[in-house]
Amino acid sequence: MRVKTIKKILQKKHDEFVASIEDEQVRNLVAKNSIITGGSITSLLLGEKVHDFDYYFTTGETALAVTNYYVDKFNEAHPGKQVKVVEDDTGRIRVWIQSQGIASEEDPGNYKYFELDPNPANAEEFVDLAMNVLEEESAEDKPRYRPVFMTSNAITLSDKIQLVIRFYGPPEEIHSNYDFVHCMCYWTSCDGELVLPNESLQAILARELVYKGSKYPIASIIRTRKFIQRGWVINAGQYLKMCMQINELDLKNPAVLEDQLIGVDFAYFQQVINYLRERKERDKDFEITAAYIAEIVDKIF
Fold it and tell me: Of all residues in the chain, what percent are helix, strand and coil, respectively (each to 5)?
């Protein structure tokens, strides 16, 4: 697809999304301080279907205002599923969801982990749900761009919008948390410009996964599965890069392990995190071991 066409598509999507925001202050912040990046631009360049548009924000003020706005919207629509916003001393913004770690407008009892389904043909459906991806447009009797799914890191709206709240800042700062170079194309709402780094374009044309380093290398290794299923390739050296970064992590520290697992598609590992929390509450001297992780992973998966 041509660059000019992609810019028009992104601008149109952004304008529709912004127009749906009822609070004027939040609307103005989102209009000026948004970044669209990640897989949507890759899909448009390849002429493929866009699963969702990943939004990041250039300022902490915008990220916090957006999070508060949609958490309030979700709570108003679902009184029995109250969630709240937490901002820590480092400025990190989280959505706090009691017990399950996820909140959805659907019955949480119907939420499935795709690994638990006995029919492999259904795997892609559950992968998409776990990735917070909603293919369908809003039904006529429901408002567009409403919050439908939440984790601590992101808020998914209907109509293919995902608001990532874990990071904010200029594009180069956002992409310092990214892993694969092909995901680093971006569009900025302040000027409507589309930036396509040469290195990213080369990787996209070759459908090759090139690892640039990430704060969440465990997530990166797991993410390779979905790309390989879509026909992308990766060489052994890229896995070595990820393994070297994992080697620097203290995964026996529960806080570090939890932070790394939340970096993965959240639903996959929420039960692992819950097991560890419960065990630690029962036994303050408990230490995480590879054998114990293997035991609970086999139970869950």
Answer: 50, 15, 35
For 39, residues 6+ apart whose C-beta sits below 8 A from its C-beta are: 50, 51, 52, 54, 183
Q: Are strands 53-57 and 161-168 parallel, antiparallel or unpaired?
A: parallel
End-to-end CA distance of the chain: 39
Give the pLDDT score at 98: 63
Q: Does position 135 have pLDDT exceeding 80, yes or no? A: no
Q: How far apart are CA 241 and CA 234, in angstroms?
A: 12
The residues spanned by each domain of the chain are: 1-206
The dihedral through the CA atoms of 50, 56, 58, 61 has a sign that is positive
Instruction: Return the residue matching tokens 């109509």.
Output: 159
Q: Is the pTM of this model over 0.85?
A: no
Distance, CA of 10 to CA of 12 (rounded, Å): 5
